[in-house]
Design brief:
Elements: H1 2-20, H2 25-34, H3 39-60, H4 62-67, H5 73-92, H6 96-127, H7 134-150, H8 155-166, H9 171-195, H10 201-222, H11 228-248
Helix pairs in contact: 1-2, 1-3, 1-10, 2-3, 3-9, 3-10, 5-7, 5-9, 6-8, 6-11, 7-8, 7-9, 8-9
Length: 249
C-alpha cells in the first residue's frame, strides 16, 4: 500500500507542477528510485510517465506552433528526434554505477537551470536576436535534445534558454516549440527505452495515470495561483533537497 501511495502522490504532484511551472521530475524520479527501481530504469520510466503531459501541452499550443516562423518546424522535429535517439542510446551504454554517480549532478544541474531559467530566458531573448544562423541553431537544439533524451529533468527550461539564445523573442512561439520538442524527443527516447526493456511497467502505469490526473488539476489551479515566484522557490527547494539526498546516498 505504501508503494502505491508514494507513486500516486508523487504522480499527482509531478503532474500538477509540470502543468503550472515545471519541475515534476524532481518528485517522480526519486519516488521511482525509492520504490526500488534502478536509477537508469527510473529515468526511463519517469520520461514515459511525463509523455502524456507533453502530448497535451503540444496539442494546446498547436496554433502557436503552426504560426512559428523563426525556425522551420520540420527541422525542429528532425533535430529533436535525432537528439532523443542519441540521448537514449547514450543512456543505454552508460553503466549503472556511472549513472548512479552522475544522477546527483544531473539533479543539481536541473535545479540550477530551473532556478535561473526565467532570468536566462529574459536575457537571451533580449540579447540573442539573430545571434545564430540556421546550422548553428540546429547544433544548439541538438545538444539540448541529447540532454533531454539522456535525462529529462529541466529540459523545458534549457529549451527556452536555447530558443532565446538562437534569437527567438515571441514567448508564445517559444513555448509552443518547447512543448513540441519535449513531446518529440520524449516519444523517441521512450521508444528506445521500451525496445531495451528499461520501463518498469507496473510503476509506469500508476505514476503515469496519477501524473495525467495531476496535470489536469494543475491546469485548473494554475488560474488561481498568483504567487508563481513562491511556487518556483518551493520547487527549487524540492530539487535542491533531492539533489542533496542523492549526493549523500
Amino acid at each position: 500500500m505504501t508503494f502505491y501511495l508514494v507513486l500516486i502522490l508523487a504522480g499527482l504532484a509531478a503532474g500538477a507542477l509540470n502543468a503550472v511551472a515545471g519541475g515534476g521530475t524532481f518528485l517522480s524520479f526519486p519516488a521511482l528510485v525509492w520504490t526500488g527501481v534502478p536509477p537508469i530504469m527510473a529515468n526511463a520510466t519517469a520520461t514515459l510517465a511525463a509523455l502524456p503531459g507533453y502530448l497535451g501541452s503540444a496539442w494546446a499550443f498547436r496554433a502557436d506552433i503552426r504560426r512559428a516562423r523563426s525556425l522551420p518546424v520540420r527541422l525542429v522535429l528532425l533535430v529533436s528526434a535525432l537528439g532523443g535517439v542519441l540521448g537514449a542510446v547514450l543512456l543505454l551504454v552508460t553503466p549503472s554505477a556511472v549513472f548512479s554517480g552522475v544522477v546527483p549532478w544531473l539533479l543539481a544541474f536541473a535545479t540550477a537551470a530551473f532556478a535561473l531559467g526565467p532570468s536566462i530566458t529574459r536575457r537571451t531573448t533580449r540579447t540573442g536576436r539573430g545571434a545564430f544562423g540556421l546550422p548553428l541553431a540546429a547544433v544548439v537544439l541538438l545538444a539540448v535534445t541529447i540532454y533531454g533524451g539522456y535525462f529529462n529533468g529541466g529540459v523545458g527550461i534549457l529549451l527556452l534558454a536555447a530558443f532565446g539564445l538562437i534569437g527567438l523573442t515571441d514567448l508564445r512561439e517559444m513555448n509552443g516549440l518547447k512543448n513540441l520538442v519535449s513531446c518529440m524527443l520524449s516519444a523517441v527516447s521512450v521508444t528506445v527505452y521500451i525496445a531495451a526493456g528499461l520501463i518498469a511497467w507496473k510503476q509506469a502505469l500508476v505514476l503515469g495515470t496519477a501524473s495525467a490526473i495531476g496535470g489536469y488539476i494543475g491546469a485548473a489551479l494554475s488560474r488561481r495561483i498568483h504567487n508563481v515566484r513562491a511556487l518556483r522557490a518551493f520547487i527549487v527547494l524540492v530539487g535542491a533537497t533531492m539533489s542533496l539526498v542523492f549526493f549523500l546516498r
